[in-house]
Structures are given as C-alpha cells and as structure tokens.
From TrEMBL:
<keyword id="KW-0732">Signal</keyword>
<dbReference type="InterPro" id="IPR005901">
    <property type="entry name" value="GLPGLI"/>
</dbReference>
<protein>
    <submittedName>
        <fullName>GLPGLI family protein</fullName>
    </submittedName>
</protein>
<dbReference type="Pfam" id="PF09697">
    <property type="entry name" value="Porph_ging"/>
</dbReference>
<feature type="signal peptide">
    <location>
        <begin position="1"/>
        <end position="20"/>
    </location>
</feature>
Length: 288
C-alpha cells in the first residue's frame, strides 16, 4: 500500500516553476457523492482576470460559472471542472506520466479552486475547497452576509445590457459592481449579491480580481444544482484560512505532514526533479 501511494505522488506532483505555479493531484480518482439541492434556472459565464502574485503582478485568466437556482446558487471554476475530469479519466485509464503532464499543460490549472454556494443551507454560504487532491477536502459553512451597497447613477453597457454602478466594502476588499435591472436576479459572482439586478461585472479596488460576464444561458430542460460537500471535513473560517496559509508556505511539508507514509518527488514539466516550492504566492479573494 505504501509503495502504491508513493508512486501516485511521484506521478502526479508537478511544479510548473516557470510560472510559479504548483499543481498537486493526489487521489483524484476518488469520487464523492453528489446531492441534488436545487434546480438551475439559468447559468452565467464569467471570465476572470486575476492576480495571485501581487509582487510580480502576473495575471491569469479563468472561466467561472454561476448556476442560479430557484432557492440557491453555485459558483465554481469551469477550468477546474475540465482539468479534474481529464485527470480522473487519465487515472482510470492508467495513462503514462508523460500523457498526464501533457494534459496538465493542455487543460491548465485552476487558480480559483473554491466552490461557493449561496443560501445553502438556508441563510448560509458554504465554501468547498480541495487542497492537494484528497489530502484536505474542506467545507466551511458561515452565516450569509449581505454586502452594503452604495448605488450610483453611472451606467455602462455589458454584453448588450444597460448596467448601473454600485460600490461596497466587503470581505476585506472594496468592490465596484455593474448590475442590470433588465435581469431581475440579485445574484452575482462569488459571494457578491443583493443588487436590484444581476451583477454582470465586478472588480476590486486593487484590480486583483475582475469578473466580467461573457454569456447567460436559460435552462430549457431540467438541470440539477449539485452539492458534493457532504463528505468534506466541516471547518471554521479561522481554521480554513490557517490551513491555506500552511499549505502555501510549504506545500510538500503540508503533504508529508498529513500523509507521513507518502514519498514525494517534485518534477518540472519535462519530468526532471526540482526543488520543493516554498512560499507559494497567495492572494485570496476574501481578506479578513
């Protein structure tokens, strides 16, 4: 058993040193039960322009999806959904290390791993996240907080919809949002909501994160809104933040501390051994 775990770690831990990224996918073949909690009414696609490393100011692009249900909503990374699906298929098909690394390059790596459920359970917001694959699967459930928006007369047009401007200070960042009264939904990306219309664009004051709507699709057939976090470890926000800080300070140390019987080998994209990464840039959406 120990030998198998060690081999899995060696095959699936890849440091993309050229871009200061670190990808770990241990145990991704494991599946978790998914419960239907709602029915999606429409789906919003957001393109993210973000900055994880605030010193180098390197930007990244990512596609996020917002599924708006009758009672709740789910916000997640489409990039992560695709890359996880490909990796799970690779593991199931026992493909070579070279093929797995090629797929890792081809399909990219999500920088925004969190799934955010608003109003699930009722009156709560639930965050799901995975650190190093199956090593830590976390569920953080908190009382939902409504941003205190200040509305403005300024307008802009986004994907053909006339939008109004609103601002707030929320979760440690100052946000500017553009919402459309033409779309009668108070939803928005991440934990942002509560305006008299769907938020089509949101940007924080430091321009570290910009969410821009790229399209809206009405669900014309039944589409379940799924929740996979029942088997995740429940954890407080304070503990959740501490785990992330530990992981980003020393990812390999975090793994070996959690799984002492696993032997970790870090490789670059060419399959060569490289140094263990330390102090991975960390710029979370939520500041406290």
């Amino acid at each position: 058993m120990k030998k198998k775990a060690s081999l899995t770690a060696m095959l699936t831990i890849i440091a993309l040193a050229a871009h200061a990224q670190f990808s770990i996918n241990i145990g991704m073949g494991k599946t978790f039960r998914k419960d239907t909690i709602d029915q999606a009414v429409f789906i919003v696609q957001y393109e993210v322009d973000g900055c994880i490393d605030t010193l180098k100011k390197e930007r990244f692009k990512e596609t996020m999806m917002l599924e708006v249900g009758k009672k709740s909503s789910r916000f997640y990374s489409y990039t992560k959904y695709v890359s996880d699906s490909v990796l799970a298929a690779d593991i199931a098909n026992n493909v070579s290390k070279e093929v797995m690394m090629e797929h890792a390059k081809q399909f990219g790596k999500s920088r925004l791993n969190e799934q955010t459920y608003k109003r699930y359970p009722v009156g709560k917001v639930t965050t799901l996240n995975e650190i190093a694959g199956d090593i830590s699967r976390l569920r953080c459930e908190e009382t939902e907080e409504r941003p205190q928006w200040t509305l403005s007369a300024d307008t802009a047009t986004i994907i053909g919809y006339v939008c109004n401007k609103a601002e707030c200070f929320f979760k440690g960042r100052r946000w500017t949002a553009w919402y459309s009264p033409e779309i009668p939904s108070g939803e928005g990306p991440w934990k942002l909501f509560g305006l008299p219309g769907l938020i089509l664009k949101a940007e924080d004051g430091d321009k570290h994160y910009t969410f821009t709507c790229a399209g809206i699709e009405q669900c014309r057939s039944y589409r379940p809104l799924l929740f996979s976090g029942k088997d995740y470890e429940p954890i407080s926000r304070k503990a959740y933040d501490k785990i992330h800080e530990r992981y980003h300070a020393d990812p390999v140390g975090f793994i070996t501390g959690s799984m002492p019987n696993v032997s970790v080998t870090v490789q670059d994209q060419q399959g060569n051994k490289t140094r263990n990464p330390m102090n991975i840039p960390y710029n979370p959406l939520e500041r406290r």
